[in-house]
Design a protein that fits this description.
Layout lengths: L8 H6 L2 H5 L25 H4 L22 H7 L3 E5 L5 E5 L22 E6 L7 E7 L10 E10 L2 E10 L6 E2 L1 H7 L6 H11 L10 H20 L3
Antiparallel strand pairs: 1-2, 1-3, 4-5, 5-6, 6-7
Length: 237
């Protein structure tokens, strides 16, 4: 689902999986060489913080950057517990979790991933798990060929109609795919109902930072989580 909802068929046909994971921020100020942007010119400031920040991050932001990661596939892979094999120029390989690939901005937003110089992604490993259901839910300004304003990927296993194990990741809301650890812990052993899904959504957005341009993303993000959790439950009825 995440791949099907990404970009256009023409772009998908020409793209690579590794390139998809490493796509850069969609922040307009990052792409404007005349704008102050700590990602392309460290120390120059962040024009987005005082400008039009619609669509940018509300989770994991810093005073140096509020750009968001708008990709789809990485969000799904984080929810599925996937890992990567990366190979250095000298041939040495190491394994890292997809969840650890991207970095939050902190005071060095120009360093976007935890890859070392010259490392290449060669394999993606998705563990074979007995999930009862999984899905990817994406909300965007138009029905196709648009980046996510918010998205949610969820994988769940039930026992006696209660959550036995769940993984939940969000997209479009932070500088990296955002894993909702607190919500996962809360849902353990719970039935997935409107009430528990609503509480889980609240936990996902603890500490969110918004302004007049991004305030809508807080409510939209919560509704995206609720819809994803309820839809994955209905798929088992």
């Amino acid at each position: 689902d995440a791949l099907r909802l990404a970009a256009s068929a023409q772009i998908r046909n020409a793209a690579t999986i590794g390139g998809n994971l490493l796509q850069r921020t969609r922040c307009a100020y990052f792409r404007d060489k005349h704008a102050n942007c700590n990602r392309h010119t460290p120390g120059s400031g962040c024009a987005a913080i005082h400008g039009d920040s619609r669509g940018l991050a509300i989770l994991g932001t810093s005073s140096h950057c509020i750009a968001n990661y708008a990709g789809d596939l990485a969000v799904a892979l984080v929810a599925l517990g996937a890992s990567l094999t990366v190979v250095a120029p000298d041939g040495k390989a190491r394994v890292m979790q997809v969840e650890d690939l991207h970095r939050l901005p902190g005071d060095r937003p120009d360093i976007e991933t935890n890859l070392k110089d010259g490392e290449l992604i060669t394999h993606i490993h998705v563990p074979r798990r007995e999930w009862d259901a999984s899905l990817y839910h994406k909300v965007r300004d138009r029905a196709s060929y648009a980046f996510a304003l918010t998205s949610a990927a969820v994988a769940v296993r039930f026992r006696n109609r209660r959550v036995d194990e769940i993984r939940l990741a969000l997209g479009g809301l932070a500088a990296k795919p955002w894993r909702c650890h607190a919500a996962e812990a809360y849902l353990q052993g719970q039935p997935l109902t409107i009430a528990t899904a609503t509480e889980a959504a609240e936990l996902c957005f603890e500490g969110a930072q918004t302004d007049e341009h991004r305030a809508f993303k807080l409510e939209l993000g919560k509704r995206t989580v609720i819809r994803a959790l309820l839809d994955v439950t209905e798929s088992q009825l």
